[in-house]
Design a protein that fits this description.
With 729 residues, this protein is an alpha/beta fold. The protein contains 19 helices and 31 strands. It has six domains: 100 residues, PriA, 3(prime) DNA-binding domain (GIY-YIG endonuclease), CATH 3.40.1440; 62 residues; 182 residues, Rossmann fold; 180 residues, P-loop containing nucleotide triphosphate hydrolases (Rossmann fold, 3-Layer(aba) Sandwich), CATH 3.40.50.300; 61 residues, no CATH class; 88 residues, Alpha-Beta Plaits (2-Layer Sandwich), CATH 3.30.70. It has a seven-stranded parallel sheet with strand order 10-11-9-12-15-8-16, sandwiched between helices. Strands 17-27-26-18-25-24 form a six-stranded parallel sheet, sandwiched between helices. The protein has a five-stranded antiparallel sheet with strand order 2-1-4-3-5. It binds adenosine-5'-diphosphate and zinc ion.
Length: 729
């Protein structure tokens, strides 16, 4: 490639710029496509990447002598492979983002670009003992007696002491400090024992493996919860690793994957490399480099793992493919499941989408023959699917001021009496969603958003779930000054916990929601306690719905099944079905039979009916017909244009001028502008335009043309484009 040295090369900088810029290559420097280089822009030097020249664009007219020069080639970092460059360009074009911002996601591991800092550990100095011995010190000496060099924290953990004890022994000269060997990804072992697949699983695995060598394909692995989908796709991972290629498993909620990681360890003899926002900066750097150097063969990660620089990726599995967590809403807005399919087509390898409740998008793709469809209909071994029963809250209402119907309370009591576990699910954080003054009717609203403040009794404050503003709960009504007049309205999980505590004071309870268990390790510890049956009743938000395997869990109670059904969202029914199916699917995953009880005021609603009857397919068929009739995704395509500004007028008038500039086109319709349902967030007024296009229309080309002609936002007005939106608030 670099045979005859080009005088200029395009370099993409990780900034919100429309395209790569040309730079001159100084005498004596050779650069290759994909290489990391340092290049100046205005007064700052940036780390960027030598980009392929876009042959379709006009050649640069700049005088090479006037171009600025590349400052330095970073040659100890592996260049980005061509497929990563192409992927960045595609994602940018598809999402209408700047390619530099996609590159920035690809480079989000700062430490990968500086030489790895040496790591230090401790080792027992042979024949040495401290003058003062304590039981804790003795344990350390025993563990360190094997002569290994240990990371301090690992030694402390293995000996069951605090790191202070280790430091003391270093000071005493008993332990000496030594450089640890460079970190390397764990070595996988493909010869470890594998599960004996059931005939149904074996057929599914054979089908999956049959097209492993045919380049790009997409397979929807559609099996009920607990049917062994993981075991089946492990076979595809094993086949990929056996060919020496890399494999990536995407999970919607990486903090929740400890069980999965343990299973990988069993199956492949070592833990996979993990990639998510909870990693420390040094570890992020090491994992990034291990992926780039083709050392890390198996990676489990959140959606951003898709942007790691895999040189030899041979498989992507998207677990829980229907999960809305795959949609990134900030900066570059992308749907990771869809981008995984794109990455597979660029890399010419298979992509597996796995779910017990596949998205309508994937089901339609399967039924139209674009995706292969493999089904698993039985739970593994004796485990049966839980019996689902609805509780009609109109005929079995809870006591006044309470939220659990006597039927559900009775079922929890029975479950506890048998020594089994119960889970109560309510997808609402905090104590109460609204606080009202009984005297004057005043409601606490966020000063920055059009939303009520949510009471968090545990943290003793009123909080906005949109902007994070919080305030202490006042003693008197700020409006009328009445004392003791403020009453919480409606339940959040903290309130359910209070009710459960009064009903079952002896039971060991845990509350699980993202605000109460912020750290990955705390969460993993709590999940382990549930798995080990140290907890009797779990009360949680959607954090508990996903992917867990709790062997002792017999009963799942859904406190309010109607919560998501009233949203003005084209996917409201689908998403409620998926969530409730998933959470009830946590029950009875091993020998204990499972039960799901669903509290609802709308037992005749199609979603509730589908859950109770287990007739998923009939529900989905109806839902698919409805989408088709309305040409909603996947039968039509959507883009959302959100205009926001500090002043309502500014936002509205820009949104109107944008709408007026919309070019006329066949099969493309522009709706709005309309005030967004969440009219104000963080003090910014919001208006939304929705573009609805036929499937075959080129939505991106249309938007590009429109935005080129349209007036540009001025002042503090902002325009955000979201292709294939999932949020309509
Ligand atoms: P899914 O991913 O479909 O929810 P899993 O793969 O997690 O299902 O399987 C559910 C449980 O059954 C897991 O604990 C798993 O280890 C076990 N299991 C499934 N298939 C087998 C098998 N063939 N042999 C042994 N255990 C299995
Ligand atoms: Zn707010």
């Amino acid at each position: 490639m670099a045979k005859s040295k080009p005088a200029t090369v395009p370099v993409l900088l990780p900034l919100a710029l429309p395209a790569p810029y040309d730079y001159a290559v100084p005498e004596g420097m050779t650069v290759r496509e994909g290489q990391f280089v340092v290049a100046p822009l205005s007064t700052v030097d940036y780390l960027g990447v030598v980009w392929p020249r876009d042959e379709s664009a006009e050649p640069p007219k700049l005088d090479p002598k006037k171009l600025r020069e590349i400052i330095e080639v970073v040659d100890d970092v592996p260049p980005l492979p061509r497929v990563s460059l192409d992927f960045a360009d595609w994602v940018a074009r598809y999402t209408l983002s700047s390619p530099g911002m996609v590159l920035r996601m690809m480079m989000s591991a700062g430490r990968a670009f500086s030489p790895p800092a040496p790591r230090y550990g401790v080792r027992l100095l042979e024949g040495s003992a401290p003058s003062r011995m304590t039981p804790a010190r003795a344990r350390v000496l025993e563990v360190a007696g094997n002569g290994m060099t240990w990371a301090k924290s690992a030694l402390a953990e293995a000996a069951g002491v605090s790191t202070g004890v280790i430091d003391g022994l270093v000071d005493a000269g008993t332990l000496i400090t030594e450089e640890l060997p460079a970190w390397a990804p764990p070595h996988l072992d493909l010869s470890t024992a594998r599960a004996r697949l059931t005939p149904e699983q074996a057929d599914a695995a054979a089908e999956l493996l049959a097209n492993m060598n045919d380049g790009f394909s997409v397979t929807l692995l559609d099996g009920v919860t607990g049917s062994g989908k993981t075991e089946v796709y492990f076979e595809a991972i094993a086949a990929t690793l056996a060919q020496g290629k890399q494999a990536l498993v995407l999970m919607p909620e990486i903090a929740l994957t400890s069980h999965f990681i343990a299973r990988c360890e069993q199956r492949f003899g070592a833990k996979p490399a993990e990639w998510h926002s909870g990693l420390s900066a040094p570890l992020r750097g090491r994992v990034w480099r291990a992926v780039a150097e083709n050392q890390a063969k198996l990676v489990v990660g959140a959606r951003s793992a898709l942007f790691l620089p895999f040189p030899d990726l041979g498989l992507i599995v998207v677990d829980e493919e229907h999960d809305a967590g795959y949609k990134q809403e900030e900066r570059v807005t992308y749907q990771a499941r869809d981008m995984a399919v794109l990455r597979g087509s660029l890399g010419q390898f298979p992509v597996v989408l796995s779910s017990a409740t596949p998205s309508i998008e994937s089901l339609v793709n399967a039924s139209q023959g674009r995706y292969r469809h493999i089904k698993l209909e039985q739970r593994y071994k004796a485990a049966r699917l839980p019996d689902i029963v609805t509780i009609d809250m109109r005929t079995s209402p809870p006591e006044r001021g309470k939220w659990l119907s006597p039927v559900l309370v009775e079922a929890v009591a029975e479950t506890l009496a048998r020594g089994e576990q119960a889970l109560l699910f309510l997808n609402r954080r905090g104590y109460a969603p609204v606080t009202v003054c009984r005297n004057c009717g005043f409601k606490f609203e966020c000063p920055n958003c059009s939303a009520w403040l949510v009471e968090h009794r545990f943290r003793r404050r009123l909080e906005c779930h949109h902007c994070g503003t919080f305030a202490p709960i006042p003693e008197v009504c700020p409006n009328c000054g009445a004392e003791h007049s403020l009453v919480p309205c409606g339940p959040g999980i903290e309130r359910i916990d209070e009710e459960v505590a009064a009903l079952f004071p002896e039971a060991r309870r845990v509350l699980l929601s993202s605000d109460l268990t912020p750290g990955v390790s705390d969460l993993r510890e709590t999940l382990r306690e549930i798995e080990d049956r140290e907890i009797d009743i779990v009360i949680g938000t959607q954090l508990v719905a996903k992917g867990h395997h709790f062997p002792g869990l017999a009963l799942v109670g859904v406190v309010d099944a109607d919560l998501g059904l009233t949203h003005a969202d084209p996917r409201a029914a689908e998403r409620t079905f998926q969530l409730l199916n998933q959470v009830t699917g946590r029950a009875g995953r091993e020998v204990i039979p499972g039960r799901g009880l669903i509290q609802t005021y709308m037992p005749e609603h199609p979603v509730i009916q589908a859950l109770a009857s287990g007739d998923r397919d009939a529900f989905l068929a109806r839902e698919i017909e409805a989408r088709k009739a309305a040409t909603m995704p996947p039968f039509g395509r959507l883009a959302s244009l959100l205009v926001s500004a500090g002043a309502r007028d500014a936002a509205e008038s820009y949104a109107r001028s944008l709408a007026r500039a919309a070019p006329a086109a066949q099969k493309i319709e522009v709706l709005g502008p309309a005030e967004a349902p969440l009219a104000v967030i963080r003090g910014r007024f919001r208006f939304r335009l929705l573009v609805k296009a036929a499937r075959e229309a080129d939505l991106q080309a249309y938007l590009r043309l429109w935005l080129k002609e349209a007036p540009k936002p001025k002042g503090d007005v902002r325009l955000t484009i979201d292709i294939d939106p999932y949020s309509f608030l």
